[in-house]
Amino acid sequence: MIIPHPQSLERRPGRFRLPAELHLTAGPGAETAADLLAHHLGADRPRTGNGPWIHLDLVPGGAPESYRLHIEPTQVTLTAPRPAGLRHGVQTLRQLLAPDGTSWPCVTVVDAPALPRRGLMLDVARHLAPLSFLHALVDELALHKLNVLQLHLTDDQGWRVEIPSRPRLTEIGGWRTRPDGSRYGGWYSRQDLAALVRHAEQRGVEIVPEIEMPGHVRAALAAYPELGNEPERRLSVWNRRGISPDILGVHDAALDFGREVLSSVAELFPSRYVHIGGDECPTLRWERSPRARERAARLGLDDVRLLHAWFLGRMHDHLASLGRRAVAWDESERLPGRLPPGTVVAAWLDASHGTRAVARGRQVVMAPHRATYLDYRQTTGPDEPSGHPEELLTLADVHAFDPLAGGLPAVDPALSRAAGVVGAQAQLWTEDTPTVDHLRYQLYPRLCAFAESAWSGSGRPGFADFRERLDSHLGLLARLGALAGPGPRWTGPDAVPVLEPEQQLSPETMGR
Known about the structure:
It comes from Streptacidiphilus monticola. The chain is an alpha/beta fold. 33% of the residues lie in helices and 20% in strands.
């Protein structure tokens, strides 16, 4: 009952009975994965050299994330060419473990993913998710063999990452006044995020930061209005849905700001990838700005809208100088102008846009909203909690998603710059998701279906098979505390706030 479904699983009679003490060994390079397995089996199980044997080892050959798991009544052997494969095998062992934690069935599993990058984007700008939730979410992503967590850290409604050289980004940009007059805010310290990165690295999950620009920056402009196009206007942090028309300027100070923030973020996150947004950028402020029109003229651009790709190109070049790759939403690719060739395109509008980007020579992350947006409503029932008011995304819809549909090639960006699909990503925006319970309701069980689509691609079994496995899998998620609590506790005056009590800072104590 494994999710995502493995490439090959052979069942045999018998079970491996887990003793009170673990005879767990690891070959060179496999020690970390063995420690992870021991952690999941329980810290109260001492390690010993006696009894049934569990052995993890690195063995050359096979795809980078592949693994082979062989369980016999007296021995468990897990091998892989790289540590990533061993970690995936550890997650398979977690799922195969009997509910009482005493045994594994005798099986042979041979497995590997269809795509090298499989992730979830979580919007923490609209509502700040507790650190405890993020740490648990990393474990849950690893359980489903997802290896990327993209944190949407900035937007019109809030700035959530500490930049030491720009304290007002969090002191001012980290707070907003809701329409009802209440105050909401908070952010993650660099120590918070560094600890999360370390936790994720141990589980094979890469944290990708997303810093929106040149649009979706109203929170930054509330803190530093001189970075915009009308510095004399004093702006508040955006406190409603929709897109603020206020965007970064294209003068040198705005460009320096972008580079400064990206350098600071790159110091904090070791990921090779940094997402620079690029979507939903209305250009009316540039059209009205003499400085922007002058910049366009000096660059020989006959349309100020071309400044959009030019701006993102400068940020791409800066990231390249830091040894990083820029990722941008696919709107940036379709607007006038073109991004630098090395930019990875995240295709959110429609899968066909991703297909066309591949045809133009791009590396693409497939994220079409009608298959991957987990903030959409799951049902049309009267008890469905608030969600996106216009869209519906069922469990079957997510499972039907094939990121390689039409024969698109899968490409490992660590090995090649050839055009193709490098990954798939689900998204959870939080405009309508203010509580942990609501987050968990939106995630499950659809994240399970997405994980199977991203791991198995066109080779996955049908939906009926998935539903049969899901029934057992939800029991595991319930035991892990991953499912939403009983009842619709995510709405109404008694809703549990996403912000943890210790992060509910007052304006007087914001300078942590």
